[in-house]
Give the backbone structure.
Amino acid sequence: MPGLGGHGIPLDPFYLSWKAKEFDFSTRFIEMAGEINVAMPYHIVEFITEALNGRSKALKGSKVLILCVSYKKDIDDLRESPAITIIEVLQKHGALVSYNGPYFPKIGKGRKYDLQMQRVPLDDLGQYDCVVIVTDHSDYDYQQIVDASQLVVDTRNATAGDPLTEDRS
């Protein structure tokens, strides 16, 4: 899973930990859970990098398509979406990132991001070095995506294959 998003869940472990400390409760595992959730988008970028390296491609200059940017399946909510962090980190490392998703024709500026991106159609998936399934919306035909793509990193096991990669070389 690429991480948690939404308006409450990503912050709840940190709030619970803060509140528990008021009553002298140990919160080590709660804090670790929160830290793991925050780290997951970075772990996914590392996995994408390794998957590309396995095909003799560097992340820098690779064309990467993100499928979809909502924080959860079949909703139109970007709040705390791990996809935003994944896109930002990929761009920082020189990847040429595009996205597709049924709910967002464009991504502009939010409280914590400024991406200024337009949704791309799902035409010619073979042009991308890697397609990353971040959110498993019901609108996608995952078999068609796998068949048409060079490399798929599936963070949601939507393809029902290997939970993280589907290499179509």
